[in-house]
Design goal:
- The chain is of the alpha/beta class.
- The protein has four domains: 3-35; 50-154, Elongation Factor Tu (Ef-tu), domain 3 (Beta Barrel); 171-295, Rossmann fold (3-Layer(aba) Sandwich); 305-404, Ubiquitin-like (UB roll).
- The chain contains eleven helices and 19 strands.
- The protein has a six-stranded antiparallel sheet. It has a six-stranded parallel sheet with strand order 10-9-8-7-11-12, with helices on both faces. Strands 14-13-19-15-17 form a five-stranded mixed sheet.
- β7 (171-177), α6 and β8 (199-206) form a beta-alpha-beta unit.
- 34% of the residues are buried.
- The structure holds FE2/S2 (inorganic) cluster.
- FE2/S2 (inorganic) cluster binds at residues 352-355, 357-362, 391, 393.
Length: 409
């Protein structure tokens, strides 16, 4: 029998088998009904699994705090059984938690990447690594107030910045800037423990050596797993004592030196200024859109740096009429702050997680007025655009507004 005919024969046989299996579907189902217990089903395992994987909130408590650099700390968070969180939700390396923190009477949310691994969540802890920002409203509060034993409320794991084997190539090139390295710690450790089947080359840009986070940890990971992890430091300051690093910024030439762009999927996470630079370098490779994954969480730091933002309104304070359920209220809003910040200042807290226009949790309806929507954070569906829905976290008032917002979760 020729090889061709043999293949055809196998296909026909297996198709026939599938057909027979289908004809037995109904009788087999009847038999299962007959054998089934007459006791009513009390549990709902599918819903229980959904709630475990996607809890609306998790109550956590700080178990350990580790200094990573002068301005960066890693917080180890465990379930707070007093508030009924017994187990932590599993996640995909690269996802974030949206923390809910009360600061001077104002409830705010901030997304922070989980820097520990999914398997460590199963062991009962998450780690998040936070860098203190200059004049950072929340990080200054965290530095002054968070201690071992402090209770922290968070969302379930969120976000799309993770390796997906059906979509991504096994060679990952991570491009990180500053504290944008935190999801890559999770990804690197998940590669090493076998949760992710991929290799990681990480190009990590920092201003100076003192800013490098996890230096020794990544060096050790690289030393012990040379076929899986490679890290390249790229320092932009003038004086660099560190051996084995690149100087300047993450350019096309540096990318080409360490990886084959055409057989890699890129994951980019860092400050806006780094995106602006790296995006242009990556454009030179002409890669398909799906081969560049971006984590853009957090609000734009200074909307005035956006060329399209109407500068003439920069000094203005507008009025926003808010409709939420039966309540109607008017609040002030600074043109250079997002609508979400204005709502939070007024203690009206619509649901929010990513604060970068991506998750859709703060989705609201614009009834009247004009907003400026940051184009890099405009992830709205076309239907939403057509019917005036917008994401307050990525939108700025440029006239007085009237809006409808969702209730807090
Ligand atoms: S908080 Fe995610 S879209 Fe606004």
């Amino acid at each position: 029998m020729s090889e061709e005919k043999e293949k055809l024969d196998i296909t026909i046989k297996s198709n026939t088998r599938d057909l027979f299996a289908f004809t037995k579907l109904v009788p087999n189902r009847k038999k299962r009904f007959e054998r089934a217990s007459s006791e009513p089903i009390t549990g709902d395992p599918m819903n229980e699994l959904v709630v475990r994987l996607h809890p609306i909130r998790q109550y956590l408590v700080i178990k350990e705090i580790k200094d990573e650099t002068k301005s960066t700390k890693t917080f180890k968070l465990v379930p707070d059984p007093d508030l009924n969180t017994k187990k932590l939700a599993y996640f995909r390396a690269g996802q974030y938690l949206s923390l809910k923190v009360q600061v001077n009477g104002v409830l705010i949310t901030r997304p922070y990447s989980i820097s520990s691994t999914p398997s460590e969540a199963l062991k009962g802890y998450y780690e998040i690594t936070i860098r203190k920002e200059e004049h950072g409203f929340l990080t200054e509060f965290i530095w002054d107030n968070w201690k071992i034993g402090t209770k922290v409320e968070s969302s379930g794991p969120e976000g799309y910045f993770f390796f997906e084997p059906l979509r991504d190539l096994k060679q990952i090139v991570g491009i990180a800037g500053g504290s944008g390295i935190t999801p890559f710690r999770s990804i690197a450790k998940a590669i090493i423990d076998g949760t992710i089947d991929a290799r990681l080359t990480l190009l990590y840009g920092s201003s100076e050596e003192d800013d490098i986070i996890y230096y020794h940890e990544f060096k050790e990971m690289e030393r012990n797993n040379p076929t899986k992890i490679k890290i390249v430091y790229v320092l932009s300051c003038d004086f660099v004592a560190l051996e084995e690093c690149e100087k300047g910024f993450i350019t096309k030439e540096i990318i080409e030196k360490y990886c084959d762009a055409n057989s890699s999927t890129f994951f980019v996470c860092g400050p806006q200024i780094m995106y602006n630079f790296v995006e242009k370098e990556l454009e030179k490779f002409n890669l398909p859109v799906k081969r560049i994954r971006r984590e853009a969480f957090g609000e734009v730091k200074d909307i005035l740096t956006h060329p399209e933002f109407p500068k003439e309104v920069a000094e203005k304070i507008f009025k926003i009429k808010i409709n939420i359920g039966d309540l109607a209220k008017e609040i002030p809003a600074i043109a250079t702050e997002s609508v979400l910040v204005a709502l939070e200042r007024a203690n009206l807290n619509p649901p929010s997680k990513c604060r970068s226009g991506e998750c859709g949790f703060c989705r609201s309806l614009l009834i009247d007025g004009k907003i400026y929507i940051n184009p890099v954070s405009d992830w709205r569906k076309s239907g939403d655009k057509r019917f005036n829905y917008f994401h307050p976290c990525a939108s700025y008032p440029i006239t007085d507004l009237e809006i409808i917002i969702p209730r807090a979760l």
